[in-house]
Predict the structure.
Amino acid sequence: MQLEFFVYPFLFLGLYFQVFLLVTFLSTPTRERRERTASIATPKVAIIVPCWNEQDTIGGTVKSLLALDYPKDKLEIILVNDGSKDNTKEVMDSYIDNPQITVLHKENGGKHTAINAGIELAKDAIFVGCLDADSFVAPDALREIVSCFDDPQVSAATPAMSVHNPRSLLERMQNAEYIFGIAVRHVLSAVNGIYVTPGPFSFYRMSVIREVGGFRHAHQAEDMEMALRMQRAGYLIENAPRARVYTKVPRTIKTLVKQRTRWTTGFLRNVTQEYRDLVGNPKYGILGLMVLPLGFVAVIGGVALFLLAIAMIIREIVRTYLITNGIPLSYTLMPHFTLEGFYLSITFVTLLSFITGAASVAFIIIGKRVSDTPGELTLGIIGYALVTGLIAPFWLMRSLSDLVTNTKRKWR
Amino acid sequence: MKSLATRNAVLALVITLLIIGSVVYAVNYLDRQRVAELSAIQNQLATDTLSVETQFALLETAACEDISEGNTLSQEVSNLGEKLANAEGRLGATDEQVIQLKNQYTLLEIRDYLLTKRLAEACNFKPTVALYFYSNVPGACTDCDRASYALSYLHDQNPNLRVYSFDYNLNLGALKTLIAVEKVKPEFPAFVIEGKRTYGFTTIDEFKTAFPKDFFASSTATTTKNQ
């Protein structure tokens, strides 16, 4: 049996998911979400900014929140210092005189405890949101988010995240990936398939938080756990595709792998332990039957295909060595390709991979258009297409290993 | 919301299957186009070979310079062989069209080989010819890939080397006759070089000894220099 056959099921599932996204994108409910206008109503909201050693970015985050197009008496900003060891406390205290801002310092207890402490202070808010202290919002983002809550069954709303001022190839690559995520969340919201309410600027209905309880440690994936808990309780999670929020991303491969390992391990632990009953359960619709199972498949497939590719490359190197052994390198290394169309390698796998790749690029473009996210994407898309596949297997393998060996890692 | 999801899931499945079906059809169509291209080249070469043979028969030994295109033909036969090997790799050695083309190609090779011999005798030149017999039966020839690569390298070093490759197990009368005439045993890889039979492939240096002395001399010097 050829090794190539192992690729087929993953290619099929990848293509199927993308076609599903495309079909859903073109359907009326998704179009209606795109056409939804920003809210005129201004219910009382509170935004919690949990901070741990964020002295350099907290100022910019608060500045962007203060610039939100929202009545000042309806918007409360709660800064929670979760036992920072740098100058975060001093920076926060400089806002004490601002009547819109509440500052709270507490012992370090983890991000979920900081958010819960903020929720305790936001007693009269109808909606409560979170914003990581390394993120910045567009002025109209809050009105876009609030408009998602017109349906009383909606318990949470997610924003359109992209990377703040991407410069390096790694940042641009992540920007393309985040914008791909904008399109995916926009589409999945139409079929209630969202399984994570990301830290930067997701909002929750306060009454639902009171009903289902506050944030939990949840294997360092408190935003994912809260989304799954709300889904289990039968609520809807919406998306505001034009609620733009810009976040800082890892600048080195090492920190990127660490961050993604945390996310992936959090997903795997939550879904295999506390929320196993959601997986494959028709009661939870697309989330249970497609999104969560395919999340698993993506992790397993990513690792399997990477190992398969390594095995095939090693096999080819050994084979080439054995065949060319004794022949001068000057001949072996000489390019022997021809531009003749006859030799063009168009196989089932290459053609299908091209189609799925093209669909991914299409979704990045869709994400950019739907969210009106500014900036140039070409280099990011090229990096995303060429580099992600080489790095992702490392955090996927690390996550699987952590899951199996029950290894706990620090947040940073 | 659930009915929308179900409808879209089913619709997506249908579209996915249609895309996969189209991809399978397209790949298959392209492969068949390649085979058709091979067939067309093969027919053209067969006509050209027949033309040279006829020309040779008409002129006998009178005008060797007039039939010098025999060299060009051999090169085209060689190129055709490479394309056929590529098609065999894609479609598999058991594909009926591939077998049919291989049969025709083998006949073409044998005719080219015979024509080369006749031209050599008539026009008084001495070509260096290597008949190479391989087997596609799994496990029957572990060194055939090495031997093929070595022959390609040697042909690159000296384009005057004429290599004729034959699938030993091909069910073709003319090939069986050639095997019988050259007394080639089913041990692979098998070579007939300068009328002498050799079996197996160890190293390129040892393999070179089967060829006339100095045949690769100038190129060897260049190669050493390059290394």
Helices of chain B lie at 2-59, 70-91, 96-123, 144-157, 173-182, 204-208, 217-226. Residues 2-59 of chain B form the longest helix (58 residues). DSSP finds seven helices and four strands in chain B. The two ends of chain B are 69 Å apart (CA to CA).
